[in-house]
Every structure is written in structure tokens, then in C-alpha cells.
Write a structure and sequence with these properties.
Helix content is 38%, strand content 13%. The strands form 3 sheets. The protein has a 5-stranded mixed beta sheet with strand order 1-2-5-4-3, sandwiched between helices.
Length: 367
């Protein structure tokens, strides 16, 4: 993997050393993109699909989530009867697991009040209605109220008028309806990232959201293509918020057979995903873009040099907030960790006798 940069937020050297010891380099066995997928790869599909099913939220989880939303709607409705409540993020975009908490956006007219004032008032309302651990976090990039619902046990973050996140959630949910292999791939990749400790942005690795975009783009790039590029089609959904236009083709029921010509199994796609990110992606020059359904050049995005804390070593364009690089947190040390983990995953799927187990073995900093 290519990449250069420097700066704070890097992992302690002992953690880097221990990971290098645990993650052997496979370049000697896998010569970049020339390697062909093992012939028995499809035999592992049933095990991977069983794992996928186990990661999906249960009906009980969905029921408890609805319980929280109903309780919250009652509290909010007393003070702001015209407010509209939107679920957003992983709890609503189809990519959430049983461990996903609830993110809520309140769409409301706040008049001359500031967002912070409204959130402080909201926190008072929630405390009065006996929600637990209510805290207004007003200094965040998106100010929120965080609370816990004692009835469901869920934690919940509430923001005001963050409609960009609502549109983003809808886009991902619509992509999820196009081909079941997207959900299967994204759940498995997210689980792998969690087990291998490479889904922690505060440590300089990638967010779960970034991995979902990587999966969508990967399926847009397959031949034959498995997913279309919804933003490149005549828009049937448009929302303009804070000067950003969110527009795409959302009549996904008309595209149900789009990827039918591609017969790749989930096992082959998972191998292909890690093979791509270990050996085929051009880290020095390329930006992945689900907005365009292809890769763009860093030069055209002007993401060639570090600006502030944005390093642009792994470039993942946000589909609506196109100036936002989801990979900006990756530094010159954590890009090496990601590279080693992508290589390990590709090699496990290529050579291991039981890849469904080995691939997801937890990484432990202590050993």
C-alpha cells in the first residue's frame, strides 16, 4: 500500500509492533492481482451466510427499538407537536447489527432559538419524563442529546435538523434493497473490521459507514456490475439542506434484476473485496466514489496533500457531502495496519482450511 503523511493521533509503537508480529506478510504467497480465486471458494458460502444471519438484528431488537421511538415521540410531541422524527444511521439504513444504538433526527422549526438552546430544553423534557443518563453534548460537530431509555435499555443520540444524515440514510437503505449480496458483504466486512480492531476512527482506522461505502463501490465496479450508480441516474428524490443538494434515483423496485447477470457468491465477493483492497486499489492516486460509481483521481478532488488533520491516504468520498473524505483519519502508521489486515484477510480466504473461523479471529492488543 502506498501512502505518506505524518501527524498526531497515531497508535503507540508497541501496538504497531505487536500487530506486525500477529499479522504476517503474505506478499510472497500472493503476487498482487495475478492470483486466481481458489476453486473451492463457494464451499465456504454456507458458513459465511450463517454468520451473516446471526449478525442481523433480531425481531426482539426491532421491537425494543420501536418501543424507544414511541416513548421519545410522546415526550417530544408534548413540547414540539409539529416536529417530525427521523431515524438515521445504522439503526435505519439496513446495515445495523444487534449492537447498533438508535440515532434520531428531529426536524422542526426553531425560529430564533439556537440549536443548542433547543437541545438544552429537550434534555430538560427528557429528564422530566424519566429517561436515564440524559446529557446535552453541545460542543460536538453535530450537537446532540444523549440518553438511555430505561424500558428498552437502548442508548439514543438525538440531533436537530441534520437532514443531510437523513438523506444519506435513505440512500444506503435504497442500495440495500437492490441486491442481497450487498447486505451480506457489508455485514461480514463490518464484523471482520470489529473483530480485527480496524473500525476505530479515534485510533486512525475506518468507520463502519466507510466500510459500507467501500462495499457499495466494490459491487459497482464488479463485472458484470452488481449495483448501479443511483446518483448518476435521473433523480426521483431530491432534498436540499444547508446548501447541499441530495438527489438520486430512488425507484429501486424498478432495478431489482440489475445485478442478476453476475453470479458471484458471497464467498467469492468477500475474497474479491479483500483482494482489491490489499493489492488492486491505487492508494496513491484513487478516490472511491459511490456518487460516480467508479474511482476518481485525488488530483481532481484536490486531495493530494495533507491539510490540517486530513491526510487523504485512503480516500472515500461521502456521496452528498462530497468535500468530506471518510478516510481522512488514516495516518502513515494506521495505513500500514489496514494494509496488513487486508492482506491477511485475502490470504486466509485463499489458503486457510477453515476461513470462516480464522478470518474473524479477534485481534488482541494484549498478545
Amino acid at each position: 500500500m502506498d501512502g505518506s503523511g505524518s501527524g498526531g493521533g497515531e497508535l503507540p509503537s508497541e501496538q504497531l509492533t505487536s500487530r506486525s508480529d500477529q499479522v504476517p506478510r503474505f506478499r510472497g504467497r500472493m503476487r498482487r492481482s495475478e492470483v486466481e480465486c481458489r476453486q473451492d471458494i463457494d464451499s465456504f458460502a454456507p458458513g459465511l451466510l450463517a454468520l451473516f444471519e446471526s449478525l442481523k438484528p433480531s425481531e426482539e431488537h426491532k421491537s425494543r427499538q420501536k418501543q424507544l421511538v414511541d416513548s421519545l415521540a410522546k415526550s417530544v410531541g408534548k413540547e414540539w407537536p409539529s416536529a417530525r422524527m427521523h431515524l438515521y444511521g445504522s439503526c435505519a439504513n439496513s446495515f445495523g447489527t444487534t449492537h447498533s444504538d438508535v440515532d434520531v433526527c428531529l426536524e422542526m422549526e426553531i425560529g430564533t432559538e439556537s440549536t443548542v438552546d433547543v437541545l438544552l430544553k429537550l434534555s430538560d423534557v427528557l429528564r422530566a419524563d424519566n429517561f436515564d443518563n440524559v446529557e446535552a453534548i453541545t460542543g460536538a460537530r453535530v450537537p446532540i442529546v444523549r440518553m438511555t431509555d430505561p424500558a428498552s435499555g437502548f442508548s439514543c443520540d438525538i440531533c436537530i435538523n441534520n437532514l443531510l444524515a437523513v438523506a444519506n440514510t435513505k440512500l444506503l437503505k435504497d442500495y440495500a434493497q437492490l441486491d442481497q449480496r450487498l447486505l451480506q458483504l457489508a455485514f461480514l466486512v463490518k464484523h471482520w473490521a470489529k473483530q480485527r480492531r480496524v473500525n476505530e476512527t479515534y485510533r486512525g482506522t475506518l468507520s463502519s459507514y466507510a466500510y459500507v461505502l467501500m462495499c457499495i463501490n466494490f459491487l459497482q465496479l464488479r463485472e458484470p456490475k452488481i449495483l448501479p450508480c443511483l446518483q448518476a441516474m435521473e433523480p426521483t428524490y431530491t432534498l436540499t439542506t444547508d446548501g447541499t443538494e441530495c438527489a438520486y434515483f430512488d425507484k429501486v423496485d424498478q432495478l431489482q434484476d440489475f445485478g442478476a447477470e453476475n453470479k458471484d457468491s458471497i464467498a467469492e465477493l468477500l475474497w474479491g473485496f479483500f483482494q482489491y483492497w490489499a493489492y488492486r486499489h491505487d492508494y496513491r492516486h484513487d478516490v472511491i466514489s459511490i456518487r460516480m460509481g467508479k474511482t476518481l483521481s485525488k488530483q481532481e478532488k484536490n486531495w493530494t496533500t495533507r491539510v490540517g488533520n486530513d491526510r487523504h491516504l485512503v480516500c472515500i468520498e461521502d456521496p452528498f457531502e462530497t468535500g468530506h473524505d471518510l478516510g481522512r483519519v488514516v495516518d502513515r502508521q494506521t495505513i500500514r495496519i489496514l494494509g496488513e489486515e487486508f492482506e491477511r484477510a485475502a490470504a486466509v480466504l485463499q489458503y486457510d482450511d477453515d476461513p470462516c473461523v480464522t478470518l474473524f479471529e479477534p485481534y488482541d492488543y494484549e498478545n
